[in-house]
Amino acid sequence: MAATTICASGLKGGLVSSFHGTWGTSMVGDDYYALMKSVPRYVTVGKPVRSAPSMKNVNEGKGVFAPLVVVTRNIVGKKRFNQLRGKAIALHSQVITEFCKSIGADGKQRQGLIRLAKKNGERLGFLA
User: Taking the complete model, does pTM exceed 0.70, yes or no?
Assistant: First the structure.
């Protein structure tokens, strides 16, 4: 960006700029060619490419209870384990809902508590 100052003596010779040249020639030379190399030559038209959504736990394999969860999943089997996990999550959500009813919390607070329980379960390794 060019810095421009105006001297106290007025406009007669008082306009000083660090920019030398004209706007037409400001992008000629090495800078122009470097910029042209960094810009792609063609643009694809169509749907943007998206990666597939991942439901994977970012803390998978981490947490205090992760080894126990992995061993249990290997013993019981993946399908049966996911059924049991779903039932446990549903029961835990019901407990949170009943707790919110007993203290008079609204639905937004209840959802916040359920999200907090999920984050804690991920950190502890229950969702490994």
Answer: no
